[in-house]
Design brief:
121 residues, 2 strands
């Protein structure tokens, strides 16, 4: 979940119960293995959390690609690059995210210039 939006809300196949079962089943064993390598409880916990987050992100990206009907990334080993479709998608997201602060500032300025109240119904 990020900023109040979840992949589930988009219809992406992320099952919280499944993720919880996987975490419950494998987290202790993975933690002990990671801890045996780094000997730091904090680092082992961080690496464990990152491992599960990467798996979740990978699944969400695959679902987004399926929803769009195009591959956004080329994967070769540990190398990941944007496809031409990914370049277009990234540019569109970048443009929309850059316009958000401008829109926010404009509405903030307007609200100071024209005072009114907003009520929830």
């Amino acid at each position: 979940m990020c900023g109040g939006l979840s992949a589930e809300g988009r219809g992406w196949p992320i099952d919280r119960q499944m993720l919880a079962r996987l975490y419950e089943r494998y987290s202790r064993e993975l933690y002990l293995y990671i801890y045996s390598m780094c000997r730091s409880p904090e680092m082992a916990e961080d690496i464990l959390q990152e491992t599960f987050l990467k798996a979740l992100l990978s699944r969400a990206v695959a679902a987004l690609e399926a929803e769009l009907g195009v591959r956004l990334f080329e994967r070769a080993g540990r190398t990941v690059t944007l496809t031409p479709y990914g370049e277009v998608f990234y540019a569109a997201l970048s443009q929309s995210s850059q316009s958000f602060p401008q829109s926010f500032m404009a509405s903030s300025t307007l609200s100071k210039a024209i005072p009114f109240s907003v009520r929830e119904y």
